[in-house]
Amino acid sequence: MRKVWMGAGIGAGLGACFLALLIIGTYAAAGLGGAAGRVVGLAKGAVPAAYQPHVQKWGTLCPAINPALLAAQLYQESGWNPKAQSPAAAQGLAQFIPGTWATHGVDGDNDGDKDVWDPVDAIASAASYDCELAKYVKNVPGDATHNMLAAYNAGAYRVIQYDGVPPYRETQNYVKVITTLAKSFEAPTQRVQPSQQAAGAIYYAQKKLGTPYLWGGNGTPEQGGRFDCSGLTKAAFKSVGVELPRVANDQWNAGPHPKRDELLPGDLVFFAHDLKDPRSIHHVGIYVGGGYMINAPYTGAVIRFDKIDTPDYIGATRVTEDGAKALPRRNAA
Questions:
Q1: Which pTM value belongs to this model?
Q2: What is the widest separation between alpha-carbon atoms in the chain?
């Protein structure tokens, strides 16, 4: 996208009966959900632990931004990769181009050096530049955060010219993507709304029970209809019209993160090598209730029910259609 300053267990029979009840309950619950709460900070485990205090700190630099919004921008730009470099020479966690970094780079850790490859400096600089843009367009009608994001994408002059977000599809999409993606980084103040697609995703996965696992499997005829973990979850949600990324640790950001005691059937449940770093997610399944998930576990196993309460459980995501659409598509790994 164009940017001003960045390169942009259970038996099958018992399981089926159990699942039928869960599906009915899921559809009933989906009609009762209330709106998610206001942002009060970052959701647990949403941001790598090494970056979380800095995102939290700099995300309150001015009223136009918040920690979740800043996290969404950084994730969108680099996927939390501090060594990221684009073909357009955008560099680091925040993807500054060299000329813009020279003008707007900030020494976020006060070590006397403004280093585009230093994540702390990059986080501080991203927040600082967002706030500068917000000042440029502060007198423009409309939502201050939307105008700031539009200025980031199309330039402050265009936002002023059009009295708000300009009528460019790319810019309008950028504003929607970042504000939507920010919801996956928020710490909600109340229970998040159940997914309308959850029951259908479970139904799809249930029909695959007993299918042998295949690393990299997407369920194609050439692959004998076999899946790996994220291939199964991607296909399950695709069956109900929701397009998830291929990689499990990107699927993590497809919606808000309910707490363990708030899980509902259809939530994605994730497992990681480092419980403080969502980039280390190595497995995903579809929660079906009662502490169990349907998942494609590993080579030599079949798609089956497994317990979710294991030492590597990092958390869950309640997939939303808009949240899934907002995610960047990266290569499978």
A1: 0.79
A2: 65
